[in-house]
Structure formats: C-alpha cells, structure tokens
Design brief:
Length: 96
C-alpha cells in the first residue's frame, strides 16, 4: 500500500498550500497490487512552496517518490511541471 508521497524528497504534506491529489493518489493509504497500473495528477496551487520557501512553478522538475507500508520506495523519472500540475501515468508495481 502507498502510505505517503514525496515530491523532490519532501513529504507532500509539508508543502504550503498543500498540493491536491487525484486519480489513484487521492486516498492514502492506497492499495497497490502487483501488475496493476496506477496513475494520478498532483496539482500545485499557485505559489506553492516547500518548507524551505522554494516556490514550485511551471518548469520545475518534479520527482515523485511513493513510499509503501512495507518500507519500499518507488520513484518516478523527472517530470516538468506544466500549468501547475504533473500527470503521473502508468506506474506498475512488480515483485522485487
């Protein structure tokens, strides 16, 4: 199960204002089954900042890390933020 999401190694809950999750990321914890694809959108409201005050804006490279209840992490490639949103498609969980 996905129990937390990190953006650029910062918990999504630490951003201000908090990003809006949709799709398969909307409800935490989220069940992950082997071979089942997950996708979602993370929307950053205007002037969203990390705890250090860095503003997340269009053009920012976003790396998403999904933390699982079993202690494993799954990372995405870097996505460029466009129109204050990043769309994550086709994350498929596999057996280690």
């Amino acid at each position: 199960m996905i129990d937390s999401i990190y953006v650029n190694d910062v918990s999504i809950l630490s951003y201000n204002p908090a990003p809006v999750l949709s799709g398969d990321f909307k409800i935490q914890p989220s069940i992950c089954e082997v071979g089942v694809q997950k996708e979602g959108i993370i929307f950053f409201p205007a002037v969203t900042a990390d705890p250090n005050g860095n503003i997340i804006q269009d053009g920012t490279i976003i790396r998403i890390r999904l933390h699982m209840t079993n202690g494993k992490d799954y990372c995405t490639k870097g996505y460029k933020l466009l129109m204050n949103a990043v769309f994550v498609s086709t994350i498929t969980f596999t057996d280690p």
